[in-house]
Amino acid sequence: MPSKQSNKAIFLDRDGVINVDVGYVAAVDDFKFIDGVIEALIKAKQKGYLLVVITNQSGIARGYFSKEHFLTLTQWMDWSLADRGVDLDGIYYCPHHETKGIGDYKLACNCRKPKPGMLLDAIGELGIDVTQSILIGDKISDLQAGITAGVKSNYLVRTGKEITEEGRALATAVFDDLASIIDML
Ligand SMILES: [Mg+2]
Ligand SMILES: [Zn+2]
């Protein structure tokens, strides 16, 4: 069914953007919202953006944690945000890894960033206009997925992985954190 691609959205990486990246975060106890993120997401909703989380979760492929474990944490995150007035519009994750995956998870999929598969699914399912939308990530693979999907602005934040020269060159701009980006929208 053709959908009107009229919604503007913010595509959000999870680790290093929403929560502190301590590496393969899989338990509620390890999940800490970065300061100011929830307040910023409230503002983003007020500014009319859909909020769509796009996250690579190769910890599932590698057998570090189960898909059920991930989904339990995701539900907790979703409820924690909803409790504060932030309803996420979509959460997309890739459980695969091309070389390190175990069993069915060893797959050269189209969803693992830098591939744009998760974004393309969201764009179709949520009627997103990429020319009005932005992506916020902490790694070059986040930016590459956004650029390939046609997202207008692809930003890096300094709250996650260290910013590389390559990342700086590819990013529309680099900001201290998610809140700084929402403030200027
Ligand atoms: Mg990240
Ligand atoms: Zn995948």
Low-confidence stretches: none
Going by helix content, strand content and strand pairing, the class is alpha/beta
- General shape: globular
Strand order of the largest sheet: 3-2-1-4-5-6
C-alpha-based Rg, rounded: 15 Å
CATH architecture of one domain: 3-Layer(aba) Sandwich
CATH class of one domain: Alpha Beta
Query: Would you identify the CATH H-level superfamily of one domain?
Result: HAD superfamily/HAD-like
- Bound molecule types: magnesium ion, zinc ion
Helicity, in percent? 25-40%
Mean pLDDT: 96
CATH topology heading of one domain: Rossmann fold
Calculate the terminal CA-CA distance, rounded to whole Å.
Answer: 31 Å
Count of helix runs? 7
Strand content: 15-25%
Largest sheet: 6 strands, parallel
The ordered string of helix (H) and strand (E) elements is EHEHHEHEHEHEH
Count of strand segments: 6
Short description:
By secondary structure, the protein is α/β, with parallel strands linked by helices. The protein is built from 7 helices and 6 strands, in the order βαβααβαβαβαβα. It is 35% helix and 15% strand.
